[in-house]
Design a protein that fits this description.
The chain is α+β, with helices and mostly antiparallel strands and 140 residues long. It is built from four helices and four strands; from the N terminus they run βαββααβα. It has one domain: Alpha-Beta Plaits (2-Layer Sandwich). It is globular, with a radius of gyration of 16 Å.
């Protein structure tokens, strides 16, 4: 695997009871309108659970060129307006930013959160949150 700055944003979304269809339609409409136009956005995918264990939950998976692209894209007024539109339809969310550390075809490699690169990413995340005045990624 080549060393990549690519960041994956994964958000498990919990729509309010009876609001799944309305939420999904709005999410897809907004993604279609502006999602691919976010600077630094590589791709965006939206999934809806199909089994009872998923209980109407959704998952948004978005790829960004790097951590700064994520914060730059999500600090735009367009994105903030999107969040305000969907908030009333949501029970909660479980967002996370992820960095790929292995993929099929790679040789075996141990991962440690104490690696210098992992610490640099945490420091960069804190700095970029401050630069873009972004809240910490946390569950709602």
């Amino acid at each position: 695997m080549q060393n990549s700055k690519e960041i994956l944003f994964v958000n498990v979304i919990h729509p309010k009871k009876g609001k799944l269809e309305e939420f999904a339609k709005l999410q897809v409409k907004d993604f279609t309108t502006y999602g691919s136009k976010l600077d630094g956005s590589i791709s965006n995918e939206f999934y809806v659970s199909v089994n009872e264990q998923g209980d109407g939950h959704c998952v948004n998976i978005a790829r960004f060129e790097d951590l700064e692209s994520y914060y730059r894209g999500t600090s735009t007024i367009t994105f903030k307006n999107h969040i305000e539109r969907i908030k009333p339809l949501l029970e909660g969310t479980q967002p996370m930013l992820l960095k790929k550390v292995w993929q099929s075809g790679d040789s075996e490699k141990e991962y440690s959160s104490q690696e210098p690169e992992a610490q640099l990413l945490r420091d960069l995340d804190r700095g970029l949150r401050q630069k873009y005045k972004a809240p910490s990624i946390e569950s709602h």
